[in-house]
Amino acid sequence: MHDKQDESVASLIEEFLTARATRKPSPHTLAAYRRDLLTVAGQVGEAPPLPLDELSITALSPRVMRQAFARFAAPRAAASVHRAWSTWNSFFTFLVAEGVVPGNPMPAVGRPRAPLPQPKPLRGEDTPEELLAAVARDDGRQRDPWPERDLAVLALALCAGLRLSELLALRVASLAGRPGERRVEVAGKGGRPRVVPIEDDLDRLLAAYLDSRARRFGARSVRPNSPLLVDRRGEPLRRGGLQYLVDSCYRRAGIVDRVPRGARLHALRHTFATRLAEDGASAAEIMRLLGHASLASSQTYIEVTAGQQRAAVRSNRTNRSLAGLVREAAGGPGV
User: Fold this and answer.
1) Band of residue 173 on the pLDDT scale cut at 50, 70, 90
2) pLDDT confidence of 53, banded at 50, 70, 90?
């Protein structure tokens, strides 16, 4: 076996994270990997736990990992335990490939089934339109209003279903295709590229944004390899800046109370997917457009939409009136 088997768990975790970084995960994802690995490793052994730079990888037998995960799982939700299990499974798969350990103990460690996350679209039938209209209006309270840029961000999430990390990765050249066949080329989650068609109205809105940017910062600022989304100084938008921008748009539109807790920008993507389902798109079409890894994630939008439609029909006043008639008919004379 590889001589690295004597290395500490702490040093091997850092090697694994370095290897993962070459896949270009988001900083948020990389931080989640680190947190899951360190937190579970801290559950190994009796209290107080052995420092991780003194804990040998050979100590992590299936029995030890089962005990550590049992302690880790006790106060946590099933989704958190499932995510941590997947991280550790990837970690041991990496160690096996590197010849550090002879096998992966994680198949012997139980894990809960991860519930599929429920869609969190904006609440209110006309809320997306209200949001776009409010952001398009001149707001005298802003020191340096840039409605063209703000609309471009919202529209790419609402009309193309892009994730936060996908928006940040876009380049000017990501907008491609001939008139009438325009598309946005997306570097998707997990390195899966996809192409999302864009309609003429969105294309014109994006063109207006790029024109406004050229006026602000010069034609050089819109070269093909330039980041598509920039801040008011012309610098590439970053995660925190993009989240703040979307939050400020919600406040300006007065719809903060219609944004699901914890969704923020993702509520726009979920609104896109939910409307696709409402308009009859299949799970396979939603999967392709949103870049889901599995059909099950896409099917969730259709199931939720069907449930909402049935609830709406059930609440219809005419249906409630029918219920009384049916009860009267059941108790009345036969026909």
Assistant:
1) very high
2) confident
The answer to whether the beta carbons of residues 264 and 243 sit under 8 Å apart is: yes
Looking at residue 143, what is its pLDDT? Answer: 82
Question: Does pLDDT of 330 surpass 90?
Answer: no
- For residue 145, the tally of other CB atoms under 10 A from its CB is 16
Cβ of 31: how many Cβ atoms within 10 Å?
A: 12
How many beta carbons lie within 10 A of that of residue 42, not counting itself?
Answer: 18
Which is the catalytic residue, given 76, 171, 183, 189? 189
Give dist(CA 29, CA 305) in Å, integer.
Answer: 29
**pTM greater than 0.85 (yes/no):** no
Annotation says 292 is catalytic: yes
What CA–CA distance (Å, rounded) separates 108 from 335?
66
The domain locations on the chain are: 3-108, 127-281
What pLDDT, on a 0 to 100 scale, did the predictor assign at position 273?
Answer: 84
Distance of CA 157 to the CA centre of its chain: 11
Q: Residue 215 and residue 251: Cα distance in Å, rounded?
A: 27
Is 28 an active-site residue? Answer: no
Mean residue pLDDT of the chain comes to 84
Is CATH 3.30.9.10 the classification given to domain 3-108?
Answer: no
Total residues belonging to the chain: 335
Please give the Cα distance from 65 to 267 (Å, whole number): 37
| Residue 71 a catalytic site member | no
Residue % of the chain over a pLDDT of 90: 53
Give the active site residue among 182, 252, 269, 270. 269
> What's the whole-number mean pLDDT along residues 263-288?
85
223 in catalytic set: no
**Domain 127-281 in this protein, CATH class:** mainly alpha
The amino acid occupying position 113 is R
266 annotated active-site: yes
Which candidate in 20, 149, 163, 194 is catalytic? 163
Mean pLDDT of 88-110: 94
